[in-house]
Hints:
four-stranded antiparallel beta sheet; 275 residues; alpha+beta; 21% strand; 41% helix; 9 helices; Arc Repressor Mutant, subunit A; Jelly Rolls; elongated
Amino acid sequence: xxxxILSSKSTRxxxxxxxxxxxxxxxxxxxxxxEYDLLYMxxxxxxxxxxxxxxxxxxxxxxxxxxxxxxxxxxHYSKLPCTPEMRNIYVHFxxxxxxxxxxxxxxxxxxxxxxxxxxxxxxxxxxxxxxxxFYSDELNHRELMLCSLLSLALAELDHTYxxxxxxxxxxxxxxxxxxxxxxxxxxxxxxxxxxxxxxxRTISGRFKxxxxxxxxxxxxxxxxxxxxxxxxxxxxxxxxxxxxxxxxYDEFQFSKLFKRKFGISPSRRMKEGIH
Length: 275
């Protein structure tokens, strides 16, 4: 099977995590683990083999941005070394008894054995945080943080896999996430195209297909909607500061666009207060 189903009832423990780098190229250890082995490839390529209980061999070709999830109890190895300058992150985590009986009713995590995460930068960030946390001696709640980060990573992988199965555009989802995080910035199509290594025409077309709006229109609508919901909490705050906080040039541009969309001025909306 190309899927692994994990119970979502409980958190699970990270047993080992680290960075892995080889200047010359190395073989993958020939071993059978009793836990899950998650590998995120940052640089280079690696053909990793798995042998199931019936002796059937499967080869996973892992490239940069790919996440490979190896099953516990199965033999794993490589026949050839990885490419030189290979760099990856790996996380070993425990098996839960509930995994074996996870049913659709409990909404389990469904992960692909090999997931293309090139368009989801959050995966890499979370895995880097896991490694950093695993080796930190200064955290009061280190184990709690590790469990939480692992749960978040697995949920992101589940989400990415379901998006890819449904034909959703993961890159566009990642861009929309950036819009929510950086609501004080208006991103241009050129900036986004440069960040994701595609042409302006490609990114604009994909965004329009996924959302029905242009990149500029989507950002404008999002910022105005966020401001509308937040304004009642901003009593006494300067309108110019609010406008700049949502990426607008000044309070005049903000007020004009706000009134055009909602039919009232930002000042009036601010006076409505919280009910």
